[in-house]
Amino acid sequence: GDGDKRQCIESWKYLPAVYYLQNTPTEQKMSYRGGRGRGRGRGGRGGGYYGGSSGGRGSREGPQSFDSSKPRTGGDNGGSHSDLVELLRRIDGKQYPAYHDIESSTRGWVNDIEGYTLYIGRAQGDPYAKPTRCRVIVKGDTAKFPPVSHQNKVRSVALGDYLNRVFYQSCKDMGADVKAREAGNWNGPKGGDIEISRPTQHVIEQSAVRILPNGDICAQFTVNLPARGRSILGYKAVQIFDQTLPQLVQKSLIYTSLDANVVTRHVLNVEDQEWVRSNLEIRGLVAFVPDGAILPRMSGADDRPMNDTVKDGENSKLVRFHSPDTLRVSFDLPNMGKTLAGIGIRKGITLIVGGGFHGKSTLLSALQVGMYNKIPGDGREFCVCSSTAVKIRSEDGRNVSEVNISPFISNLPFGKKTDCFASPDASGSTSQATNIMEALEMGAKTLLIDEDTCATNFMIRDDKMMELVHKDKEPITPFLYKVKTLSKQGISVILVVGSCGDFFDVADTTILMDSYSCYDVTTRAKQIASSRATNNGALAASRASFGNVTPRCPVGTAFNPNNGKITVRTKALIAYGDVELDLSGLEQIVSKEQTNSIALALQRLTALETGSKMTIFQVLTQLNALLDHEGLEALSNGQFDGSLARPRTFEIAGAINRLRVNGSFVQLK
To answer: pTM of the full predicted structure?
Structure first.
C-alpha cells in the first residue's frame, strides 16, 4: 500500500551511498532544432501530403502551434497527444510514406494526462524496413522515483537496468511484442509490435532505459508501424500509441506501479557488488568468489543459473561454491548490512587445477565476466574480478597488424621480423602472443587463461623436446618461461591447467577443483615442484626481462567501410563494409548491444587526422572519458538508439585489432 511505499522511501535515507561514484550521465538535451527538408516528391497514389513535395531548408525557429490537418511534410512535427491521434486517423489508408508526418525528433507529442512526451524518429520507409525508433520521456514529477535511488552513477545504471527489464517483460505479458502478419499474404496486416532491448544476466550501462540527472525517465524502443500491404493502418497505430504505450509506461516507468522493495533490493545489491570490486585492489586481490555462489549455467546457450533437476532419471546435483579456509576473506557490505565471505584470489600467479569436468573452466568462466555486475538471483552476484582483467586465448586465422610479439616469438624462418609483426592469417601461437601483447598495450593488469583454448606450443616446451630441437631452431619462448617476469611487473595471471605440472614451479597459489568443490593445494604443489629436477631453462627465463610493449597508432582512413554499410549480425559478427569482422575470440562481450556500440565506435576512428600520433590506448581512453561524460548518446548521435550497451575499451580495441584492412596501424617509434 501507500504506507509501505512511504516507509520504503524513508528507508533509503539510512542506506550509505558509495562515496567514489558520484558522476552521472549528462542530461539529454531536448533543445529545438530545425529539420531538414526531404524532397521526396512522390505524386500519384500517395496523395495527401506526399504529392510533389520538394526539399527545403528546415526552420530554425522554435516550436509553433500544430494543426493536425496541415502537418509539415516529413519534418519535425509535434503537438499534443490528441494531435497525434487525430493525425493517425487522417492518414489511415494512405500510402506508407505518409507515416513521415508523425516524425517528431525534438518537439515531441505531449501526453499531459499520462505525464510523458513521445518522440518519434525517422519513420521506416516500408513495412519490411527496420522499425521506427521512438523515445518516451517521463517527467520526474510523474515517475516519482526517490532521488536517492539514482543519486550516483552506479545506482542510476542499476535503476535503468531494472526498468528496462520491467518494460521488456510488460511487452511480452501484454503481447505488445507480437507482430501482426499473415504468412504469404502481401496484402495482409503487418507490423504493430513494440520492442525494447532484451536484458541479459548482467547489469551494464545501456541506452534502452536510463535516468536523466533531473530525475526524468528516458525509454527508447522501436515500433513497427502497422500496415496492410503498403497502406497505413491508422486506427491500429492509434491503438498502439493511445492504449498500448500508455499502459507500458504506467506499468514499467512509474514508481508507484512497482514493488518498491524489489526496486530497492536490485539497486543496492548492484551497488554493493561494485563496492566489493572497488576494494579488490586495496586488499591485494584480483578476484573474489563468495561462498554459496552458483557458478554453473543452464547451458552454453542459456546464461541463467543451473538448478537441481532430474533428467533422464538422474539427479543433476548443483554444488554451490565454498571457499577453502586458508584463502577465505570477507567484506562488510555497506548497503545490505551483512558480512560476505568467500575466496580471495591474490595478485600474482594463480593456478586452477583438477580433473576434466570437475569445474575448473566453470570457475574461470565466472571470473571472466566478473567485471560486470549481475542481477539479484543470478548466482554469480559478488563474483567479481578486476576491471582490467582480459581473457586470453589462441585464435587461428585472426588478423594481426604491426604488433611487437618479440617477447614471445623471434628468429622466424627467412628472417621475418616479429617486432612489427603483421599477418592476415595468424597461427595459434602467434595469435596468442598477439592477444597478450595487445591486452598489455591497453593496460590489462590481469590475464585469464584456460589451457583448453590455448596453443600448446605457446604455453610449454618440455625437456625432451628441448633436447631434440635446439633452442636456436625454436622461435617460440613458451609462456611458462615468461609468466614470472610478467608477475614481477605487476601483471597477475589466473591460469587453468590440467595437463602440465611445470607451472607449479612458478605459481604463487594453486587451487584444486574436485567435483566442483574448491581446495587450497598450494603447499602440496610446491612440494611436488621442489622434489622434481629443476627446469633450468624456465629459471633462466624467469630472471630475464619480459621485453617491450610497443604502442601503435590507428590510421583513420583505413577504417572507412568500403561500401558504407555496417551491420551487426550477431554478438560476435559485424559486417563492416565488405569485411566480415569476427569477434568470437572476444569472450568478454556479453550482449549484442555491446557489439552495436563497438560498431559505432569503430566508425569514429575515421575522424582521426592523417598522420595522427595518438596511440590506440589514448584514442580509446579519450572515447571512454566522452562516454563517462555524455553517455551512450555520444555514439548514437541522438537517433533514439535503444540498442546500445557499454563495452569496455579492451573489447573495442579487440575489434579494431581484428578488422581485416590494410594499413590500419603504424607503430609509434
So the answer is: 0.88
